[in-house]
Every structure is written in structure tokens, then in C-alpha cells.
Design the sequence.
């Protein structure tokens, strides 16, 4: 894990991570396992990559299972949660991470491009967080194991805040995640279920390869990142492990931006 250390804060708390066979989701699954959690590794394509994450988690001494499900499909999500609960007994942590882009200039964006992104990025979060809330309430409190009855982490983006030309579908989905997350945090707090989001900036994953894979692209990207480096998936995993732990027990309904300052409007650094 690149020399990063995790505290064993999540022992006995099974977690489910969607889109966990690539990029941020993979790092989060491994980070939660490093913290002592058993993990459901959700995937929709590339079962071999999912199995590799499972193998890495088992090598750490935790249990893990790969479950195929399209997060935008209600029946598949329900089936995944049923299978996860049958395997691990319950879930304590759900990281709703799966997401994609279908970029297009606004006038040429097709309804299919719009629907695909909204269905996976936003409806997928609705289906997975609803299934999580139902399971946390069914199981009830577990004093001594976790202060909260359950923890939900939604993977949002700096684009819940920063408009993004050429990506109206994606930015809309992330803006939607923000209000979904805040509304359900409000609704579920009395049941001691904490709901938060992470807003990554530019993280080195396959979703945005063209933004960092040449020196020219990387230099251009740095104009948007005051801290002067691209984010790594482990930067997100560290925050996810903390948001899932009792160390953040009084935090709910918040987005933690993990972005090297991208949301600080760097264009104004010298007066605009
Ligand atoms: P990625 O492409 O490496 O991973 C996305 C994952 O989601 C993959 O495992 C993919 O198979 C999965 N997925 C896609 N559609 C799915 C579906 N219908 N059902 C289940 N899984 C599905 O990209 P990533 O960068 O790791 O992205 C993870 C999340 O982080 C996304 O929500 C993305 O919007 C968000 N994010 C990424 C960045 C970044 O810079 N990489 C920045 C902000 C937000």
C-alpha cells in the first residue's frame, strides 16, 4: 500500500464497495481491508480484476467475495445485498463508488449519453444507499463494535461544485449525489446511520487517463491543482477508512473534498 499505514479500526465490520475492481474503488476496498474489514468487491465487467482484489484482501488476512452487479439495475443491487448479507451476516459500511463518464458537447449530447451517466452515477447511488439503509436498520445497533449503526460513503466529485463544460451529464449526476447524500443523512441520523461523501479532484485512475498520461497533459492539469501533484487512489482510500471509523463519529451529511486545492478557484490565486 505504498508505505501508507492504516489503523485496525474496522475489525468485525463488513464493507461493500461498488466498482471495486479498478481505480479508486479498488484502493478503497484494499484500504478498508487494511483497516480490518471483510469486503464485498462489486464489479460489472472484468471478473478477473475483481478476483485479483479479492486475492489481495485474503492475503491481508481478511475475508472477501466478488459479486457481479450493475448498480443501475434494481434487481441486481437487491440480489447483491442479499448475497453479501448471506455471506458476511450483515454490512456496516457501504461505499457507493461506481461511476462513469460519457462526455459530449452539450448540443450533441445524446439522450443515451445523458441517461447512462445519470442511471449509473446517481440512480446507482440511490439503489445502493437505500439497500444499505434497509440492512443497517434491520440489523440494529452493535454497541462495542461501532458507535454508528451503519456508515454510507458516496463517491462524488469536485464537480458537485465546479461546473464542467462538455460534461453536463457527469456534473449533474455529482450535483445530484450531493443533495441525495445530504437529504438521506438528515433522514437517517436519528437511526444513527452516518452518510457522507468524498469529492475527489484529479486522481490517477483509468477514468481520466488522458488528463495525466503525457507530460504536457500533466503540466496543464497542474494549473488546476494548487498543491502541485495529481491525487493517488490511496489519498481517497485513507479518507474513506477514516469516514467509516468511529474517529469521524460526529460527522454526517458532509462532503470531504480530497483535491489538492482544486475547489479553491486557483485562477484567482494572483488576484484573478
Ligand atoms: P474507474 O473507471 O477506474 O472505476 C470506475 C468503476 O466503476 C469501475 O470498476 C467500473 O467497472 C465501475 N462501474 C461502472 N459502471 C458500473 C455499473 N453500472 N455497475 C457497477 N460498477 C460500475 O474510475 P475511478 O476514477 O476509480 O472512479 C471511481 C469513482 O470516483 C467514480 O464515481 C468517479 O466519478 C469518481 N471520481 C473520480 C475522479 C478521478 O479523478 N479519477 C475524480 C472525481 C470523482
Sequence:
Amino acid at each position: 500500500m505504498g508505505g501508507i499505514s492504516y489503523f485496525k479500526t474496522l475489525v468485525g465490520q463488513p464493507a461493500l464497495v461498488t466498482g471495486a475492481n479498478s481505480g479508486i474503488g479498488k484502493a478503497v476496498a484494499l484500504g478498508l481491508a487494511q483497516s480490518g474489514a471483510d469486503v464485498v468487491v462489486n464489479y460489472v465487467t472484468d471478473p478477473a480484476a475483481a478476483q485479483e482484489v479479492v486475492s489481495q484482501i485474503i492475503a491481508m488476512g481478511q475475508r472477501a467475495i466478488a459479486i457481479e452487479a450493475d448498480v443501475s439495475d434494481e434487481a441486481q443491487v437487491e440480489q447483491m445485498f442479499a448475497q453479501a448479507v448471506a455471506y458476511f451476516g450483515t454490512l456496516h459500511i457501504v461505499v457507493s463508488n461506481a461511476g462513469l463518464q460519457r462526455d459530449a458537447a452539450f448540443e450533441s449530447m445524446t439522450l443515451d449519453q445523458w441517461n447512462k451517466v445519470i442511471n449509473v452515477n446517481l440512480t446507482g447511488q440511490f439503489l445502493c444507499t437505500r439497500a444499505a439503509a434497509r440492512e443497517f436498520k434491520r440489523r440494529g445497533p452493535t454497541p462495542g463494535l461501532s458507535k454508528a449503526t451503519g456508515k454510507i460513503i458516496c463517491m462524488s466529485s469536485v464537480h458537485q461544485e465546479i461546473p464542467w463544460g462538455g460534461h453536463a451529464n457527469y456534473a449533474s449526476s455529482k450535483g445530484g449525489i450531493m443533495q441525495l447524500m445530504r437529504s438521506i443523512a438528515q433522514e437517517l441520523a436519528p437511526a444513527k446511520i452516518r452518510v457522507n461523501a468524498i469529492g475527489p479532484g484529479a486522481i490517477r485512475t483509468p477514468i481520466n487517463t488522458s488528463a495525466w498520461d503525457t507530460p504536457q497533459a500533466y503540466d496543464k492539469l497542474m494549473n488546476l491543482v494548487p498543491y502541485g501533484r495529481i491525487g493517488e487512489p490511496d489519498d481517497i482510500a485513507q479518507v474513506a477508512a477514516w469516514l467509516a471509523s468511529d474517529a469521524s463519529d460526529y460527522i454526517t451529511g458532509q462532503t470531504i473534498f480530497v483535491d489538492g486545492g482544486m475547489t479553491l478557484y486557483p485562477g484567482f490565486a494572483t488576484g484573478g
Observations:
- The radius of gyration is 18 Å.
- The mean pLDDT is 97.
- Residues 18-19, 21-25, 42-45, 70-72, 97-100, 120, 155, 157, 200, 202-203, 205-208 surround nicotinamide-adenine-dinucleotide (CB under 6 Å).
